[in-house]
Design brief:
The protein is built from eleven helices and nine strands. The protein has helices at 3-26, 48-64, 79-86, 99-108, 144-153, 168-180, 192-200, 211-219, 267-281, 284-292, 302-323; strands spanning 37-41, 68-72, 93-98, 120-135, 159-162, 185-188, 206-210, 224-228, 254-262. The relative contact order is 0.17.
């Protein structure tokens, strides 16, 4: 007597599960990709995030047999693009993640539109770049020791520019203020270009900025490089001391980039994309282009990238709290 009812219940369960099974198949390695893949970048063309996405896109196009397109969705220091990917459902939309969207942003903005921990599938770390502390060639203090001494002698007067409030460069400054125990004036700009123009013109004294942005001006003698902000020296600047070795052990304030997908990607697909990105980054021409922008130490497993981002969120949450960093909405 109960068999028909049991059969009906089983059928209802099977029908209810069918859409989910179809969705899962969309994310499985064997059927992916079934169309063009999009890498969303949260910044305008020409920046480091955009450059790295465009280095990888043609290599992945060849590997995957589908066009890989880079789409720029600039806004809110990468948060807008990350939210687009978090809410994507087509199985073909990835993110070139960035320290702002998945490291600093969650600490600065408690009302983020996404959860950086649970709304994404970490795929692969693409590269880590140092920031460089720079000044005008005629600045009165051109070593880290002298800059700290001057800042302590004249608290609140030395000006440090950044590419914007809440940017990686701004947080590098805040970390430095905490480490060195100095009080300096933060001057935010809308990007590196106006910042560098004012620094070279003498309107501001110092700045932490990305290695990719400052290198042409350092080589041209228009700005002076004081120190770099990874704990180890970059291969691009082997003779430039780090902040850590200049009296502040453990100091590290980097900009990093990595490929990220929406949550709930099948584990075999995560592994495949991770493997393919690692393969692309090992190609000589890709390595050369990564080195040109100071992007080092990319690769590794998806889990290593997830652990890396989690540690970054903890670190920058501490800096934001200790330095009482506030960013206007």
């Amino acid at each position: 007597m109960n068999k028909p009812n049991t059969t009906r219940r089983q059928l209802i369960k099977a029908l209810a599960a069918a859409p989910l099974a179809g969705s899962g198949a969309l994310w499985a390695q064997g059927t992916w990709p079934q169309g063009p893949v999009k890498i969303v970048v949260g910044f305008p063309p020409g920046g480091g995030t955009d450059a790295l996405a465009r280095v990888l896109a043609p290599k992945l196009t060849t590997m995957w047999g589908q066009q890989v397109i880079v789409e720029n969705r600039a806004g809110v220091a990468g948060v807008l693009a990350a939210d687009v990917v978090a809410k994507s459902t087509d199985g073909l939309t990835l993110l070139m993640g960035h320290i702002n969207s998945h490291g600093i942003g969650p600490a600065l903005n408690p009302k983020m539109p996404y959860n950086a921990e649970t709304d994404f599938s970490p795929l692969a770390l693409v590269g880590v770049t140092p920031n460089v502390l720079i000044c005008h060639p005629n600045a009165p203090a051109k070593t880290l020791k002298d800059i700290v001494a001057l800042a302590k002698a004249k608290p609140g007067t030395l000006s440090f520019g950044s590419a914007g409030s809440g940017s990686a460069q701004h947080l590098a400054l805040e970390l430095f203020k905490v480490a060195a125990g100095v009080d300096v004036l933060h001057v935010p700009y809308k990007g590196s270009a106006p910042l560098l123009t004012d620094l070279m013109g003498g309107q501001i004294n110092y700045s932490f900025d990305t290695m990719a942005a400052v290198t042409p001006h350092v080589k041209g003698g228009k700005v002076h490089a004081v120190a770099q902000t990874r704990t180890k020296r970059s291969a691009s600047y082997p003779d430039l001391p780090t902040v850590a070795e200049s009296g502040y052990p453990g100091f590290e304030a980097t900009t990093w980039y990595g490929m990220i997908g929406p949550a709930r990607m099948a584990s075999d697909l995560v592994q495949r994309i991770n493997r393919d990105i690692n393969t692309a980054m090992a190609m000589p021409d890709v390595k050369e282009r990564l080195n040109a922008v100071g992007a080092e130490d990319g690769g590794g497993t998806a889990q290593q990238f997830a652990d890396f981002m989690r540690a970054e969120r903890v670190k920058w949450a501490r800096v934001v709290k200790e330095a009482n960093v506030k960013v206007d909405a």
